[in-house]
Structures are given as C-alpha cells and as structure tokens.
Amino acid sequence: MQQTYRSATACLWASRAVAGLLGVLAALMPRAVRWYGQLRLLSSAGQRAILAGYYLCLIPTGLALLELDRLMRRIRQGEVFLQDNVRRIRRLIWNCAAVSLICLACARLYPPLLFVTIIMAFLCLVIAVVASIMDAATRLREENDLTI
Question: What's the domain count of the chain?
C-alpha cells in the first residue's frame, strides 16, 4: 500500500509540474514558434498551424491533467477500484482523441503533426485497454463485496 501511495504521489506531482510547464509554454509559444520558423524556414501558414494546434490542444490536455490529478488523489486515499475512477480514465480517452483530431486537422498545414496524431491515437487504445481492465476489476470488487 505504501508503494502505491508513493507512486500516486509522484504521478500527482509530475502531472502538476506538466500543467505548470504548459502554462509557461503558453506564454512563450509565439516567440518559440517564430524562432523555430526561422530555423526551419517554415511558412507563416505552418507557424500558424503549430500555434493553433498548441493552443487548441491546451484545452483537452488541461482537462486530462485535471482528471489525472483527481484520479491520483483517489488512489492515494486507497480508493482504487471505483466506477468513478473508470469514468475518469474514460474521460482521458476522449481528451487524447481530441488532441489527436486537433493535430490531424493542423497537419494539413504542418505535416510533422501527423506523428503526434498517430501517437495520441495509439495512446487512446492503450488507455482504453486500461479502462476495460479497471472496469472488470471494479465489477469483481463489487461482486466480492456482495459475497458473504
């Protein structure tokens, strides 16, 4: 149980650090994209695609980090196999899918974003498997709770 608590705490702090980093990057992104555009001789349309994709992806990413924060706090409390946790994991799937679709749309103007699209689509599948396993484990726990 102590190891689970430590792992959940580490994940909690890491997700909060990522959220802070995303906030800092949101402020620095226009300057960073201009620099990258000059470095790679990127068209203004490509630069706009990167900026639009980043800012649009901030919304589902922020929501995913919020769900992850709530999930890790529950796990730290020892409340692991709950339907509420399964719902939180399924929301992570939808957030990953949203990022994948946003990157797919922006990839028309900046094709390397297709790699992010593929990675996020694969991550959706992995999280869906975890959600299914968690759902089955939750149902087993509920069934065992009813057994005398």
Answer: 1
